[in-house]
């Protein structure tokens, strides 16, 4: 449909106005079957067809048929009002996949003559036919229903008035009426306009206002439990010490690239253990974008993690002595050789412990694990690269290759000792969700939070970017509850009109299919195959978002990611922060839950109701059973003690009887 300008004149339903029809079809898009179009544009196209030499059914017409256009427009306005939409709304499910049911519901609700109902049925078919000719294959769903919106839609549909016309005659805001039709709840100031609407529609007094529920107060989490780690983290962020990648000198860059090639090459130059390989995955499945961890179109998550650790270690060596560092000049510190120096490694781990308030945590263990793999006898990269000793300052340099290997062996003992004792918890995953786990139904407040987001979406301007963002956010929390994936997996979800995406539809609903590159476990263990159902209660939300709201957020027509950023194209890198913001804003009593926190919440809630369901939780989280048993063993102990104490209590009761 090319850009054209039509003048559409009807009776009371549509006022004379110019209607500008925009080209919104994006050629080459993976969703090119979707035509982003409003009912206003569709009606303009219908009007143009009646004014053309060929009528709507392809027959010859000698002159325009304005009365037919007015009749079709009248039916369309009434049909849209019944389904909570207006002429400015985007075409949705009511005219596509659910057309038959939507039309039947609308016609059954009308209290008109049989002949009038027959005419309106014909008009709807004409409207549907024009949309089919424009090749718009959208899917969406009807708006959220409330008792008020249901009653209001019936009344407006039966009035024969377009919502804008009705609003004008009742002296109320057209946008307010559109939001009420979509499911928004009027506030106290909206009651008087609602009464004027009752009068205009010929309804009894309070027939609409009595359906308005008291507005729920906004969630106030100012007194939510403070998470100590997050407060400490804010202070630590202000005292950054890691060396930035842009500050790497030529020597360090060269050494890093050699290590990276050794870890990722199929046939490395030096000996490497079977488990010493760093896995490469497609860039599209990762938020990592550093050139130092990429190889062509692939990226290495393990290298990304280690690079962060390495930057901190080298930053510590450069950090002034008075600030707890080693105070080395930058050029002397920039070499991988320091990873083989026992004193430097030990000093860094002591420094990390001090910053963690004395806790030797898993962050220590992860660093030690990486370093240990580089120092192993026979397959350790640093142990085989004796010439790297020359990169160290003379005062720290081993005399010969034998001394270098001996130093590597000493450092390996250091990291082994640290790794063994680094079992503390710096960031307790249960702290942000503890207030939920104390409830009989820990997941209920999350569902209530999703409902609040949906309510805000209904109150937003119809078709606006803000409404699309809120719909996306509600879907995001729903997916985290239904399928508690890791953040990277959730970020990498895709859709495709061919059904080849991560999220695809079947006749039974949506399913979620992940490749090994989208999973932490890769090709090993639990990560071999992941193809599971998405909860049925999420289906309608997915339908609605994909076809009505995702296109509003899409900046790039070729973007296949399911959950899109509102600010940039490609993978949504800020998703984790958005989840924290949403949970803090919409879940009462919450200080913010991370995507990983959802995994702990879902798993713990399940195990509380199913004490022996560790295998099911392993499947739910796509994790190894041993990992789940270790992480949630405390729940089994609690259940065992509870059962034991119940038996003791029963014995006390028996003693009293005796």
Automatic annotation (TrEMBL):
Q: Which GO terms describe its molecular function?
A: DNA binding
Q: Give UniProt keywords alphabetically.
A: DNA recombination
Supply the CDD domains for this chain: DNA_BRE_C
> Taking every annotated instance into account, which residue ranges of this chain make up the domain Tyr recombinase?
442-646
Biological process according to GO: DNA integration; DNA recombination
- What InterPro entries does the record point to? DNA_brk_join_enz, Integrase-like_cat_sf, Integrase_catalytic
SUPFAM superfamilies with a match to the protein in the record: DNA breaking-rejoining enzymes
- Reading the lineage from the top rank, the first entry is Bacteria
Q: What is this protein called?
A: Tyr recombinase domain-containing protein
Q: Which organism is it from?
A: Thauera propionica
């Amino acid at each position: 449909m090319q850009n054209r300008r039509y003048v559409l004149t009807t009776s009371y339903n549509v006022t004379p106005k110019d209607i500008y029809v925009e080209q919104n079809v994006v050629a080459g898009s993976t969703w090119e079957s979707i035509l982003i179009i409003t009912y206003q544009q569709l009606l303009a196209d219908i009007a143009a067809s009646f004014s053309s030499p060929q009528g709507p059914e392809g027959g010859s017409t000698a002159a325009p048929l304005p009365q037919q256009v007015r009749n079709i427009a009248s039916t369309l306005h009434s049909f849209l009002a019944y389904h909570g939409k207006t002429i400015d709304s985007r075409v949705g499910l009511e005219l596509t996949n659910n057309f038959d049911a939507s039309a039947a519901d609308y016609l059954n609700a009308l209290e008109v003559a049989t002949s009038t109902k027959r005419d309106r049925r014909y008009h709807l078919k004409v409207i549907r036919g024009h949309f089919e000719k424009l090749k718009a294959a959208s899917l969406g769903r009807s708006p959220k229903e409330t008792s008020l919106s249901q009653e209001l839609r019936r009344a407006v549909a039966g009035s024969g008035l377009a919502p804008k016309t009705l609003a004008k005659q009742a002296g109320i805001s057209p946008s307010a009426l559109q939001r009420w039709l979509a499911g928004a709840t009027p506030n106290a100031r909206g009651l008087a306009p609602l009464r004027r609407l009752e009068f205009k529609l010929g309804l009894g007094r309070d027939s609409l206002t009595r359906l308005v529920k008291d507005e729920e107060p906004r969630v106030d989490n100012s007194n939510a439990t403070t998470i100590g780690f997050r407060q400490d983290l804010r202070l630590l962020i202000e005292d950054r010490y890691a060396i930035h990648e842009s500050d790497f000198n030529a020597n360090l860059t060269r050494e890093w690239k050699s290590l990276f090639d050794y870890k990722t090459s199929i046939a490395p130059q030096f000996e490497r253990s079977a488990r010493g390989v760093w896995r490469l995955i497609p860039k599209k499945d990762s938020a990592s974008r550093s050139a130092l961890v990429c190889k062509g179109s692939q990226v290495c998550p393990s290298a990304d993690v280690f690079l962060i650790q390495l930057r901190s270690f080298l930053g510590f060596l450069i950090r002034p002595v008075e600030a707890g560092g080693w105070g080395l000049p930058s050029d002397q510190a920039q070499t991988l050789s320091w990873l083989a120096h026992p004193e430097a490694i030990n000093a860094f781990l002591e420094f990390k412990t001090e910053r963690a308030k004395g806790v030797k945590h898993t962050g220590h263990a992860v660093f030690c694990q990486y370093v240990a793999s580089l120092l192993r006898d026979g397959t350790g990269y640093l142990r085989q690269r004796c010439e790297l000793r020359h990169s160290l300052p003379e005062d720290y340099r081993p005399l010969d290759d034998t001394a270098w290997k001996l130093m590597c062996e000493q450092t390996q003992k250091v990291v082994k000792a640290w790794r063994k004792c680094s079992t503390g918890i710096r960031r307790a995953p249960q702290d942000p969700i503890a207030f939920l786990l104390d409830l009989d139904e820990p997941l209920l407040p999350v569902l209530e939070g999703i409902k609040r987001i949906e309510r805000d979406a209904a109150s937003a301007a119809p078709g606006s970017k803000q409404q699309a963002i809120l719909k996306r956010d509600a879907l995001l929390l729903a997916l985290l509850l239904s399928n508690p994936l890791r953040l990277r997996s959730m970020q990498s979800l895709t859709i495709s009109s061919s059904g080849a995406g991560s999220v695809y539809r079947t006749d039974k609903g949506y399913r979620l299919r992940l490749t090994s590159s989208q999973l932490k476990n890769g090709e090993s263990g639990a990560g071999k195959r992941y193809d599971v159902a998405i909860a049925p209660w999420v289906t309608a939300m997915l339908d609605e978002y994909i076809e009505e709201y995702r296109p509003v957020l899409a900046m790039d027509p070729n973007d296949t990611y399911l959950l899109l950023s509102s600010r940039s194209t490609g993978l949504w890198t800020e998703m984790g922060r958005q989840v924290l913001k949403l949970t803090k804003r919409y879940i009462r009593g919450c200080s913010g839950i991370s995507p990983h926190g959802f995994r702990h919440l879902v798993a713990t809630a399940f195990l509380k109701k199913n004490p022996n369901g560790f295998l099911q939780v392993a499947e739910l989280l796509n994790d190894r059973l041993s990992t789940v048993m270790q992480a949630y063993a405390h729940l089994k102990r609690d259940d065992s003690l509870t059962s034991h104490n119940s038996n003791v209590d029963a014995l006390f009761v028996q003693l009293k009887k005796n």
